[in-house]
Amino acid sequence: AMSGESGGRGGGGPAGGPPAAPPGSDTYKGWLFKWTNYLKGYQRRWFVLSNGLLSYYRTQAEMAHTCRGTINLSTAHIDTEDSCNIVLSNGGRTYHLKANSEVERQRWVTALELAKAKAIRMRNNQSDDSGDEEPASQSDKSELHGPLKTLSSKLEDLSTCNELIAKHGAALQRSLSELENLRLPADSGEKIKAVNERATLFRIPSNAMINACRDFLDLAESHSRKWQRLLQHEREQRIRLEETIEQLAKQHNSLERACRGAPGLASGTTSISSTAKGSVQSAKGEASDEDEETEYFDAMEDAPAFITVTADPKHHRRSGSNLSGASEGHPEDWNLEDSVFESSNQSSYNESTGKDLLPRKRRRSRIPDKPNYSLNLWSIMKNCIGKELSKIPMPVNFNEPLSMLQRLTEDLEYHELLDKAVKCESSTEQMCFVAAFSVSSYSTTVHRTAKPFNPLLGETYELDRLEELGFRSLCEQVSHHPPAAAHHVYSRRGWTLWQDITISSKFRGKYLSIMPLGAIHLEFHSSGNHYVWRKVTSTVHNIIVGKLWIDQSGEIEIVNHKSKDKCQLKFTPYSYFSRDVPRKVTGVVSDADGKAHYVMSGTWDEKMECSKIVHSSHGSTSTEGKQKTVYQTLSPKVLWRKYPLPENAENMYFFSELALTLNEPEERVAPTDSRLRPDQRLMESGRWDEANVEKQRLEEKQRAVRRRREAEAVEALEEGKDYEGYIPLWFERKVDAVTGELICVYKGGYWEAKDKQDWSMCPDIF
């Protein structure tokens, strides 16, 4: 990897260690301090000057594998700011360097100037040479020897001058040293010391000039013939390479024609990354933070642990002798006409498959356009590195007009996947729909880099679509520090979903990590299948510079605690050098015995497909010790595809059709509902200045309530009484029987209170 650290200016410290070679040599090495950025200032780097290129490394050991940056001196400008600073600029790249003394700085400047002159001469010579020249004739050689002899005589004169300079320079320094030892006025002593330093600086470039001339003559004599032979060899290699590429192109063209005409071949192959060594653990927090200004990504991803091959259903059977340890499936199980999988391709957001539901209520399809207010994010967050995001006071300029409770409710955008899962007779088929549903919840985040509002303690959000879509949802903010929300969804189509999510977020300077902690539970009423999974880590990149973009990474393990079926899903992190599809998600659905039944593949921002496995075998072991498995599958079925965004979505915070309706005013909701939050409503209307004032008022009101609770807790402690703290209104804390964790579950009463319009127990939070 090769990259440059950003140029800048600022203070620093001395560089350590003398250069490793004199300025006249081909290669010049040494430690210098390089300006990186305003956070880290000057950093100690190992610099190597060779062949007209100045390269730097974090350590000397890195010279074997990783160059941190290189600048070409032939087109560079060399400048000196003060006694110890050097500034190198080449186009848009600038290096600010610092040495530990003026003498060392002068050594580097001399070496850089010599290297620049040499690089310019080499570039001019290369541009003057013709690519079709024949090897030098005898007359050309005689013409070459003449200038070489002249150069040699001039070099002898320079050597004589060098000896005289060294002799008289040493005498001058001795005389100056004697003067320093005499008792003279303080002012005279300082002047003599300055003259002595100047004399030393004069000797350095003089010696460097003589050494450079001698080295140039030696190189010209010894390498001229070798360079001519190498040039001729490169010409021949280039011709052979062109011929080889032409032959490969012809072969590739003929192979393509043959592949199109050959019947019965596999329709396609895909490779997915996972592991075949037992179960995959859930993601463990955020990625490690590099101690360097630039992030480096590996050029190659992990080697695939298993491969899927799409087969023709009529020709899928193979003899067991070809594949060892194979498990067989039957293509007739993959019913193309009547299965639930087929119906998954025929539904859309605007269709309802439930015959017992009322027509959908007409809801809003747009909100006011987002104002074009500019604000520097770095000016807000530069003092917040390493802090919890929920504790950072942020203006609404970086928000979107939805709360975190409403973002949680957005997970239900593709609820029809669960409606279809109810109809599945096989638990492994049902697992495929649950897996697609777990991935679909991330589809709305691909363009949504704005931050949702942090809910106030006791804030609620309801989404009652029981008559239209068959479900009703309720969220409540049950904790403020750390921020935690409880969510409960009931569907009359045969499923119930609940989750208790704590959001942990850290600002790392270059990126923001958002880690949802807590399990998501899904239970189907008729079968009793109980699924549990956890969310992956979301990362917002380019916090300081560049366009914000979001990525999802990590692994999800979905477990059916009744049948013990499992699905392992891997969210591949984005890498510039990877050849995989961006935002890729892959996985395998297996039963309680570990036998694989389906392969899941797709992307978290577009679609998910499911392929039935008809044959599997254990392949060879990779170099990393992972055993590869080959899955022969039938043609994939699309289980989920993302709905297109509404028109003008880019000016409406990239909201989906469902998101546009989440903050739509509704009657009869609780007084703590997010729709009634004033700062959020003002922001949606485009009145951001008023929204910021209102946001500060609400936060201060919440702080006052917290201080009162803390005082009550101290008072109860002094009196020897127990203090329970905040008690959620509609949820209660219980130990989950499946995971053993303490979670908040819905205890009932909200919808009954709504029918009666009895909100007397709700606190005044707005």
TrEMBL record:
The record's section on SUPFAM superfamilies has:
Oxysterol-binding protein-like (SSF144000), PH domain-like (SSF50729)
Q: Where in the cell is it found?
A: Membrane
Q: Which UniProt keywords apply?
A: Coiled coil, Lipid transport, Lipid-binding, Membrane, Phosphoprotein, Transport
Lineage top rank: taxon: Eukaryota
Q: Where is the composition biased (Gly residues)?
A: 1-15
- Does the keyword Cytoplasm belong to this entry? no
Q: Where is this region: Disordered?
A: 1-23, 122-146, 261-294, 311-366
The UniProt entry, under Gene3D superfamilies, shows: 2.40.160.120, Pleckstrin-homology domain (PH domain)/Phosphotyrosine-binding domain (PTB) (2.30.29.30)
Q: Which GO terms describe its cellular component?
A: cytosol; perinuclear endoplasmic reticulum; plasma membrane
Compositional bias per record (Polar residues), positions renumbered to this chain = 267-282, 341-352
Give the GO molecular function terms. cholesterol binding
Main localisation? membrane
Give the residues annotated as coiled coil.
231-258
Record-linked PROSITE patterns: OSBP, PH_DOMAIN
User: PH domain location, by residue?
Assistant: 25-117
**What InterPro entries is this protein classified in?**
OSBP_sf, Oxysterol-bd, Oxysterol-bd_CS, PH-like_dom_sf, PH_domain
Membrane association type: Peripheral membrane protein
Q: Which GO terms describe its biological process?
A: lipid transport
Has UniProt tagged this entry with the keyword Coiled coil? yes
**PANTHER family in the record:** OXYSTEROL-BINDING PROTEIN 2 (PTHR10972:SF194), OXYSTEROL-BINDING PROTEIN-RELATED (PTHR10972)
Which family does the similarity line name?
Answer: Belongs to the OSBP family.
The protein's name is Oxysterol-binding protein
Per the UniProt entry, what species is this protein from, by scientific name? Gymnorhina tibicen
Gene (UniProt): Osbp2
